[in-house]
Amino acid sequence: MSPTLPSIEHRDAVFVSHANPEDNAIATWLTLRLTREGYRVWCDVVKLRGGDDFWKNIEAAIRLRTRRFIFVTSRVSNQKPGTLKELAIAEGVARTLGENRFIIPVKVDDLPYGEHNIQIN
User: Where does the TIR domain lie (predicted)?
Assistant: First the structure.
């Protein structure tokens, strides 16, 4: 395992990746629900503020704090460059950590399973 990445045991957050703004409502609901259940959640709709270096913050959260990465799978997130960047980073972290259950897809619309991004398949 890479010495620069904390082990899975030293990570404290569930990261919610989603298409912004298209899937904000479901991402907010999921974030609040997980928080209520006691999880520490990182989601841009509740963590980022105007003026933040959002890509730097997102990348650091995925690489250093994320224990599980929830990918809100929708027709939009399946193709949007930003969510696919997050997914690519998460896939690299999962490989480095040897965690085959690191990425958890959550299907939220009628996107056929056969059309899911190759990284989710």
Answer: 10-121
